[in-house]
Structure formats: structure tokens, C-alpha cells
From TrEMBL:
Protein name: alpha-L-fucosidase
Domain Alpha-L-fucosidase C-terminal: 409-486
Residue ranges occupied by any Glycoside hydrolase family 29 N-terminal domain in the UniProt entry: 17-361
UniProt function note: Alpha-L-fucosidase is responsible for hydrolyzing the alpha-1,6-linked fucose joined to the reducing-end N-acetylglucosamine of the carbohydrate moieties of glycoproteins.
Pfam families listed in its UniProt record: Alpha_L_fucos, Fucosidase_C
């Protein structure tokens, strides 16, 4: 008995360490965001579900909100959409009596090849994935018994059209690569009978929390990305209690990253990393992430044309602006109902990956330097006229195509140890002044992808680099060019 007491006494500190977080924001916020997330810098968001069948919304509108636009006869977004636009479209194409729930039988995902998706993600240079396990319509991409029970109709991907664990199959494929796997999860559901009838306690206890714990226990994700939190408090959602379980007891307690969407008024105040959505120019002291689509929708929108999609150039500049400000870019793709990723989205991912093949050293594992960007002469307060979702194309106005009188961002900076990276949207001709860099006796300057040291000299306020004239074959990449300054401060 005495030896047993001694053993329990020895184990006590380890037990205490395992139960270190309490259900208070002060305690939960003290947990560091996992280093892998801060090192990753680039992730891929995937919005895929029943809404991928109609795949329709006015331009500038989220197509994944199809059910809400349909049933509420309201539409919000850029370009002042007609409130009944989705309802009118649905009535014309499917008929007034065609329920949104019938789309589940048409969501067959017959062309879905999870290994092909995973290979594309790896080639893109993304370090993590966030898939919509369940959006606001409540349809689950895994065999969630709660989803089908709640709606009284087959309402998950195994019970309905696809007859397949889409989430599980993609998770298995991604785990064959170095890319990490995460899940988006909507806390609320527009038309869940319990939620709609304000039976909130039953909704949370019997539906939401069991689903979340099932996701974590069954698939052991690297990220839980909640959303749809804005209608209710973190107390009603039991967010603090769930996070306490997640951090202390769950099988992913040591690796899991979470965002800040845990209740009304919580964003950018509590949780894990902070999030922005279709914004440009954000910066926070805490790790953060900007999420956006390549166009103006997260779900696939058949209305969008090529001019609605961000160019690879603007997406790379957006990545630079975010990473140099200490954040991550979570760039969304919207596969179609058959499980194909639209070619334009594949192309953009491969173009970003090609650039990262040369310049990834200046992105991954870096942190914000003492200076975010180096501006040219002129005004620095240019802002887009649109007050809604901001296109990534605005980065062209801030870099290569400024309006008269406005400055441009000549260089973006990142740092890793004593290596400073200065990334130029335009390849300089002749000489490049890099302000704020203090070289040492061992400092060298190189252009990533070009196998020769560059000459430089210390000048007032920084260094001046001699940039060689490069032939087309010698130019290492397109769109942006990285100067690595070693042993600098």
C-alpha cells in the first residue's frame, strides 16, 4: 500500500500538468498557438457540400449560403444584389416545390479523387488544409448520426448521395503527405429544428458538442476552425468547456490549433489565432490568418468569370503582405458537386506552388521583421472604393500599378534568425536600396534562385545592392523576387 501511495504521489505532477487549463478565457488564452501553425504561413480552405450542387449566387455573393438566400428571400454581398435573386433562380431552374434537402441526393461526388487532391495541395506549397466538415446548412461530410437524426432525412455524405465518408477519405489521403489536416465546423445551423425553435440547450448538448467531439476523436485533426458563432454567446455554445476538454483531455491536446470564432463578440479577443475575412492590411500582435476565396465566394459559384478571380500575381502579393505582417493566408477553393476542383483554381494553386519552390525559404518558418514593408515616395493611404469584400487585386494598386500620387510597396520583409528577406514585387534594375538593414562582417546578399553572391555596400540607413542584368533563363521566377541578407540585423 505504501509503495502504491508513493507511485500515486510521483504521478501527481504529471496528472496536474495534463489538466492545466481551466474554462476561463484567462486560462485558455494562455495556451500558445502551436508553433507549426505559425511556421506554416499558407493553407487551403475547402468549401464543399450540398450547396455545391446548385453552385449559384449573384456575383459578389457567397454561394455556400444558398439555402439561407433561398428560404429567407434575402441576399447580401457586393454589387447590391436583388434580395430575391436566389429564390427567383431556384424557382426557375428547379421549381417552387423543390426542397433544398433534395440536393443531398444529387451531391454524389462521383469524380472525387482524394489522392489527386492531396497531391495538388502538396504541389501548391500549402502546409495545411481546412475542409468544411459541416456548414450552416447542417449537412455533414462524415457519417454523423446527429446530422441525419436532427433533420429526419439522410443529411450526411454516407447516408445521402455520395454514400461515402468524404471527410475521412480526404483526411487519409492528406496524411500521406506532409500537409496537416483541419476541419471547419459551423456552431449554428440555420434550419436545424432544435436551433430554429430556440431549444438551444438541447441543440448544444445533444447535437453540437457530440458532433465536435466525434470529429476530434474519430479523425484527430490538426485544426478545429469554428464559424457561425456570432448569434450566441460563448456561454451558450459552451465554448470554454469544450476548449478545456480539447486542450486537457482530447487525443489532439498537444498539437491542435483553433481560431477565435467561439461566440458573439469573441473574435480578435479570445481563442487561438485571430481571423480576418476578405480584408487587406490587417496586423496583430497574436498569430492570425486571413481567409478568402479566389473570387468572391467560398463555395463554387458558376456565375463567376475569369475576371472575378484573383490573378496568381495578386495572390502572391497578398501572401507577401500577410506573411510580412506576421499572418497566414488561408486561400479557399470550391470543388463542384462531382468532386472536381475547377481548373482555374488548380492553376492558381500550382502557380503559387511554383513561386514557393524558389522563394519558400522567405515564407515558411519566418516571422515579421521590425519593418513590414518599404514604401516608395508618395501617399500611403490608398484604399479600394468597395466597402464590402475586398479583392486581392487591390494588391496590384499597392505594388506595381499605383494611382498617381500614391506610394507603392517596394519591398516586403520577413526574418528567420539572422537572415532578413527583402521581397521585391518588381525586379530592380541596377541598384536596390534596402532600408533599415544593418550588415555585419559576415553578411552576404543573394537573390533566391540565382546561384551567385551579389555585391553590396553599406550606405546611410541601410545597404545598396548591385542587381545584375538577368536574361530570361536566369530570372529565377515570376511576380516577386527575394533578396536574402545573411547575418544582418
Amino acid at each position: 500500500m505504501r509503495s502504491l501511495k508513493c507511485l500515486l504521489w510521483l504521478l501527481l505532477p504529471f496528472t496536474a500538468m495534463a489538466q492545466q487549463y481551466k474554462p476561463t478565457w484567462e486560462s485558455l488564452d494562455s495556451r500558445p498557438v502551436p508553433a507549426w501553425f505559425e511556421n506554416a504561413k499558407f493553407g487551403i480552405f475547402i468549401h464543399w457540400g450540398v450547396y455545391s450542387v446548385p453552385a449559384w449566387a449573384p456575383k459578389g455573393v457567397y454561394s455556400e449560403w444558398y439555402q439561407y438566400w433561398l428560404q429567407s428571400k434575402q441576399v447580401h454581398g457586393n454589387n447590391n444584389p436583388k434580395p430575391t435573386a436566389v429564390y427567383d433562380h431556384h424557382a426557375k431552374v428547379y421549381g417552387d416545390d423543390f426542397s433544398y434537402y433534395k440536393f443531398a441526393d444529387l451531391f454524389k461526388a462521383e469524380d472525387f479523387d482524394p489522392d489527386a487532391w492531396a497531391k495538388l495541395f502538396e504541389k501548391s506549397g500549402a502546409k495545411y488544409i481546412v475542409l468544411t466538415s459541416k456548414h450552416h446548412d447542417g449537412f455533414a461530410l462524415w457519417p454523423s448520426k446527429e446530422a441525419t437524426k436532427a433533420f429526419g432525412t439522410p443529411w450526411n455524405a454516407v447516408d445521402a448521395g455520395a454514400k461515402r465518408d468524404l471527410l475521412g477519405d480526404l483526411t487519409a489521403a492528406v496524411r500521406k503527405t506532409p500537409v496537416k489536416m483541419g476541419f471547419y465546423y459551423s456552431l449554428y445551423e440555420w434550419y436545424n429544428p432544435l436551433y430554429k425553435n430556440k431549444q438551444y440547450k438541447a441543440y448544444v448538448n445533444d447535437h453540437m458538442i457530440p458532433q465536435l467531439k466525434d470529429l476530434v476523436n474519430r479523425y484527430e485533426p490538426d485544426i478545429i476552425w469554428p464559424d457561425g458563432e456570432w448569434e450566441q454567446s460563448d456561454t451558450l455554445w459552451q465554448s470554454r468547456e469544450f476548449l478545456t476538454w480539447l486542450y486537457n483531455e482530447s487525443p489532439v491536446k498537444d498539437k491542435i490549433a483553433v481560431n477565435d470564432r467561439w461566440g458573439k463578440g469573441i473574435r480578435k479577443k479570445h481563442g487561438g489565432y485571430y481571423t480576418t475575412e476578405y480584408e487587406v492590411g490587417a496586423k496583430f500582435a497574436r498569430p492570425w490568418e486571413e481567409c478568402r476565396g479566389m473570387g468572391f465566394s467560398f463555395g463554387y459559384n458558376r456565375n463567376e468569370d475569369v475576371e472575378d478571380y484573383n490573378s496568381a500575381q495578386s495572390l502572391i502579393y497578398l501572401l507577401l503582405d500577410i506573411v510580412s505582417s506576421g499572418g497566414n493566408l488561408l486561400l479557399d477553393i470550391g470543388p463542384d458537386a462531382q468532386g472536381k476542383i475547377p481548373p482555374i483554381m488548380q492553376e492558381r494553386l500550382l502557380q503559387i506552388g511554383k513561386w514557393l519552390d524558389v522563394n519558400g525559404e522567405a515564407i515558411y518558418n519566418t516571422r515579421a521583421w521590425k519593418t513590414h514593408v518599404q514604401w516608395s515616395e508618395g501617399r500611403q493611404d490608398w484604399k479600394p472604393a468597395n466597402k464590402g469584400m475586398v479583392s486581392g487585386e487591390v494588391m496590384l494598386k499597392q505594388t506595381v500599378n499605383p494611382d498617381p500620387g500614391y506610394a507603392r510597396k517596394e519591398l516586403f520583409f520577413t526574418v528567420n534568425g539572422d537572415n532578413v528577406y527583402a521581397i521585391a514585387p518588381v525586379l530592380p534594375e541596377g541598384r536596390l536600396l534596402i532600408k533599415g538593414v544593418q550588415p555585419s562582417a559576415g553578411t552576404k546578399v543573394r537573390l533566391l534562385g540565382y546561384d551567385k553572391d551579389l555585391s553590396f555596400k553599406k550606405v546611410t540607413g541601410g545597404i545598396e545592392v548591385s542587381v545584375p542584368r538577368l536574361s530570361v533563363k536566369e530570372t529565377p521566377c515570376e511576380h516577386a523576387f527575394t533578396f536574402k541578407i545573411t547575418k544582418a540585423s
